[in-house]
Amino acid sequence: MTDVQNQTDKRGIKIQRTGITKLHLPLIISDGGKSQQVTAQIQFAVSLAANLRGTHMSRFAEILTARMTQPITPIEVEKILSTALKRLSTDFAEISLAFKFFVKKISPVSSKTSLSAVDCEFIGELSRGSRMKFTLGLIVPFTSLCPCSKEISEYGAHNQRSECRVKLTFADADKLGAVSIEKFVRLIEQQGSSEIYPLLKRADEKYVTEAAYQNLKFVEDILRDVVTELRHVDNLAAFEVECENFESIHNHNAFAGHREIL
Amino acid sequence: MTDVQNQTDKRGIKIQRTGITKLHLPLIISDGGKSQQVTAQIQFAVSLAANLRGTHMSRFAEILTARMTQPITPIEVEKILSTALKRLSTDFAEISLAFKFFVKKISPVSSKTSLSAVDCEFIGELSRGSRMKFTLGLIVPFTSLCPCSKEISEYGAHNQRSECRVKLTFADADKLGAVSIEKFVRLIEQQGSSEIYPLLKRADEKYVTEAAYQNLKFVEDILRDVVTELRHVDNLAAFEVECENFESIHNHNAFAGHREIL
Amino acid sequence: MTDVQNQTDKRGIKIQRTGITKLHLPLIISDGGKSQQVTAQIQFAVSLAANLRGTHMSRFAEILTARMTQPITPIEVEKILSTALKRLSTDFAEISLAFKFFVKKISPVSSKTSLSAVDCEFIGELSRGSRMKFTLGLIVPFTSLCPCSKEISEYGAHNQRSECRVKLTFADADKLGAVSIEKFVRLIEQQGSSEIYPLLKRADEKYVTEAAYQNLKFVEDILRDVVTELRHVDNLAAFEVECENFESIHNHNAFAGHREIL
Amino acid sequence: MTDVQNQTDKRGIKIQRTGITKLHLPLIISDGGKSQQVTAQIQFAVSLAANLRGTHMSRFAEILTARMTQPITPIEVEKILSTALKRLSTDFAEISLAFKFFVKKISPVSSKTSLSAVDCEFIGELSRGSRMKFTLGLIVPFTSLCPCSKEISEYGAHNQRSECRVKLTFADADKLGAVSIEKFVRLIEQQGSSEIYPLLKRADEKYVTEAAYQNLKFVEDILRDVVTELRHVDNLAAFEVECENFESIHNHNAFAGHREIL
Hints:
4 copies of one chain form a homotetramer.
Chain A: E1 15-31, E2 34-48, H1 57-65, H2 74-87, E3 92-106, E4 113-127, E5 133-145, H3 147-152, E6 159-170, H4 181-189, H5 202-213, H6 219-230, E7 236-245, E8 253-261
Antiparallel strand pairs in A: 1-2, 2-3, 3-4, 4-5, 5-6, 6-7, 7-8
C-alpha cells in the first residue's frame, strides 16, 4: 500500500504543528501522590519537516492508548512527548490534556465535606535535545464583592461568581515532581472575596455572605493579588492570569488580564 | 439525473421531521412596527411520507433565501411554512429562528440609554389544513438576591445574575400580530430582584444595589411571579418557564421549572 | 436561625421542579457488571408544594456526595430519588446524570484496540408510590455517505461524520438491571454507513472507506433503520431519535427526528 | 459619592488589560464599500497605571454605544481606541469585535445565489503615540478529501467539512482601508478540496463531489497552501493559521497550525 503521507513535499514549508485534537480518553492523573481518574480532552501534535507531505495521524492515538493505565504526572508527560519525537521522527512535540479535577472542600462552619471541580490543563512542549517546557492551566471559581457598590449604597453590595484562569509555566524540568494542582487551586481561590463550596448549610452561608462583605475586591484587586502571589512561587518561568466577574448587575462581564516572564 | 431522494421507501415509517439545522442567515425581524436586522440560526424541517426515501434538502435554503429581504413576523412565519408544505409536498412543516434581539434600556437614575441583547426564538409548526401553532422563546437576564442569606447574615446578602427562559405558545393564529418580543421581555425582567443594564453610572449602581437588597427572591419566588403573570396573558395556550440563578456562593446553579397548558 | 425557605407561600402555585443544575461530581457508573469512573454533570430537582416558599438546596449536594463511592446503575438512581422524596418531603423527584462513557473499539482489519467516548445520560423520574421512569440518553457517532452524491457523480461521493441522539424510556422498573449502555451503542452505530474508530491503520482506513461507499444512507435512511431496530427492543416504553449529518458540502447540517410511544 | 476606583493602589502592579467582555451590540460593518449590520460580541480593555485601583467600567459601554450608528472599518476601530485612551486616561487600549459576516456564494452549475456565514473578528491594539496594530480573524469553512484514503481504496475516499482559522496582522496603519474581509475569505476557501455552499441543486452537488475527488488534500496540504498564499499578501506583518478537519472516520479531528512574522 502506498504511503501517501511519506511523499516528498516541494513547497518548502516546515509545519510547526500537525496532529489530532478533541480526542477524549480516560486518564489517571497523579497529584502529590493522590490519583484521580479523569475524562481528558486531548490535543497532540508534532512539527513536520519541510520535505514530508504528512504526519502519521494514527500514531498519536496509539501512543496515548498505551499510556492510559499509568498515572500521568508532568514527568510522565515528558515521556509521552519523547516517545512522539521518536515514533514520528521529528524534533518538536506538544500535548495538551484538559480535564476536570476534583478538590476536597470543607464548609467553613458545619465542616461538611464535598468535592469541587476545577478545570485543569497539562501542556507540555518538547524540542529534541532539550527538557520539556511544562505549563499548568487552571480555572478556579470564587465569589467577588464590589467595593464601589458597597461604598455608595446604604445597604447591600452586588456580588457574583468569578473565575481566575491561570497558566503557570515552570522553569526547571527537574523540579516538575513538585508541581501540585491542589496547592495552586488553594492559592488562587483565596484571592477572591470568598471561597465558594458545593455544599453549604445555613451557618456556612451566613459565614460566606459576611466574609465576602468584609473582603471587598474589584476584578483588578483580585488580579493584582494573584500576580503578587505568583511572583513568589518557586521555579516559575512565566505566568498568565485572567480574572473574570460574571457581573450580577450587567449581562456582560468585567475582566482583567496580565502576563509576566520571570 | 436520477432523483434518489424520490425513490420509494418500503420500511413503512412516516418520519416526523427531516430538514436542515444550524443554517445562519441575516433576517429582518419586525416587532410592534419596529424592525431589526438580526443574525438568525435556523432549523427548518418537514414530515416525510412513509413511501418516500428522502426530502429535498436544497429547497429549505431556497425558500429561506427568498424571504431574507422581507420583515419576519409570526404571520410571515406561517407563510414560510405554508410555502414549505407546497414545495415539499407534505402535510407538516416546522421552523425555528433563533437570534439576539436588542431592547433599549434606560438606566434608572442617570437616564443613560443602552441596548440589551435578549436571546429570542420564533418557533412555528403548521399542519396542512390548520393554522400555525406559534411559540415565542425568550431568555431574559436580571439579578436575584437571596432572602435566606440576607435574613441570617448581619450584613450583606449573596446575589447573582439570573436568567428566565420562557416558551410562550399562542392560541389564536388570527391574533399573532399582537405578539410582542419587547412587551414580554419587560414583563419578565420585572420579576427578578432588579433589572440589569449594559450601562450604569455610579448613581445607577447605588440604585440597583439597594433595589435588589429590598426585593429578596429565591429562584422559586421568581418562577412563581413569572407564572402568575403569564396566567393573565391574553391569547396564550401554553407556557414553559425555567429560572436559573448562577449562584455566587457555589460553582453550580439553582433552578426551577414549570409548564402549564391553559 | 430563621428558616426562610420554610415560610408559607400564598401564591398557590405548586412548582413542578426546583433544585440544582450544572453540578459536577466524579461517579462510578456500572454497566453490565463493568464499572467506569466518570465525570458527571448533574441536574437534580424535586417538586415543591404550593404552601412552601423554597426547597432545601443543600440537601441535593448532600444526597449525591453520600453516593459517590457506590456504583451507579438505574436501580441505584431509583434509590437516590427515593432518598430525595424523603429528605425533601415531596412527592416527585427527578435527576439527570450526563457523562462521557468509553466503549472499546477494535479496528476492522489490524484489530487495534482503542476507546471511543459516547455521551451518555441517565434520567430518572420518581413519583411517590410509583416505580421510577428511567430514560437512557446516548449520542453515538458514525459516518454517513450520501446516496444521491454517489449516484450522480462519476467518481467519489460526499460523506461526513454524523451522530445519532436517542432517548430510550423503559417500561418495567423491575427489568432496569438489563439496561446496557454498551449494547445500545453497538446497536445504533451499526445503522450508519460505517462505524468510526479512534485508531485506524491504513488497512483499516481502506476497509472503512470502502464499507461506507457500499452502504449508502441519507439521514432519513439512518433514522428509519434506527427506528426499525428500536421497535423491537424489549421493555421499551417510548423513544426519541435524532440523526444529524455534519454535511461536508455545506456549512449547515441535515437532520431527521422521530418519537414514538410503544 | 466616593469614587473608589480612583483610590491609590500601593501594590505597584501596572495591569496590562482591564475592561469588559461578552458584551453584545448591533454594529454596522463596512467592507470594501458594502455595509452589513451584524451582531457583535465585544471585548474592550485598557491598561491600568500601577497607582490606580480600578478603571471606569461604564465608559467602555458609553464609548461603544456612541458608535453604533456609524459603519465600523479598521480605521474606525482606531478612532474608538483613541477615544478610550483619552476617556480612560491610559496609554494602551485594545478591542475585539467578533461577528458573523455574510458572503455571497453562487453555486457552480445552476448559479443559485445564497449567503454563507463566516466568523469574523476585528482586533485592534493601540499604544499612545503609535498607530494601531490591526488583526483580522476569520474562520472559513470548506471540504477536504483525504489523499491516503483515495489512494488505498478501490472506490470512494473519506471527506469531511473543514475549517481554516486565520489571524492576519497588518503592518501599515495607513493602508488599513484596503483590508477586505471578502477578499480573504475567497483566498482561503480556495485552498480546500472544494468550496462549500448553503444552496446546491443536484447538478451542483455532482460538481462539488467530483471537484473534491480530484483535488486531494491532507490537512497539512491545506495549511501549506494557505501559508504560501499569505506570504504574498501585501502589507501583512504576521499571520497565524490553523486548519482543522472534522474527520468523517474518527470522532476526533486532525489539525495543523503555523505562525509567521513577516
